[in-house]
Amino acid sequence: MFRKKAVGKNHNKKTYDKETQRPVLKCSICNGEQVAGFKDIRTGKFEDVMLIRSAEDLEIFKEMYGVESIDKEY
Fold first, then answer.
1. How many whole angstroms separate alpha carbon 39 and alpha carbon 25?
2. pLDDT, tens digit, for every residue of 37-57?
3. In 3-state terms, what secondary structure has residue 51?
4. Cβ atoms of residues 18 and 65 within 8 Å
5. What is the pLDDT of residue 52?
6. Beta strands of 1-74 (E only): which ranges?
């Protein structure tokens, strides 16, 4: 009924402000849910971008935004 979105080199590159934001993977201790997004360096406000369900999802996030490493927060 529903098809999975095509993944690979077809997704668009996106940008973020590297001077005011840093990539973060927020992880729940209770249920293990992980959300990738960006945290404002000055205010600490987190902007969620994508739910991470697998290692493949994390790689897609990194490739989309050109992120090499990502910090985990609990």
1. 10
2. 999 999 999 999 999 999 999
3. strand
4. no
5. 96
6. 21-27, 34-40, 46-52, 71-73
Instruction: Take residue 57 and report the two structure tokens written for it.
Output: 């999802």
> Helix (H, G, I), strand (E, B), or coil: what is residue 16?
coil
Altogether, the residues listed in the chain come to a count of: 74
Q: How far apart (Å, rounded) are the C-alpha atoms in residues 25 and 38?
A: 8
Q: Which two structure tokens, joined as six digits, stand for 15?
A: 């940008």
Q: Model pTM greater than 0.90? A: no
Cβ burial, residue 57 (10 Å; 0-12/13-18/19+) = middle
In the chain, what percentage of residues exceed pLDDT 90? 76
Does the pLDDT value for residue 14 go beyond 90? no
Across the beta sheet with 71-73, the strand order is 46-52, 34-40, 21-27, 71-73
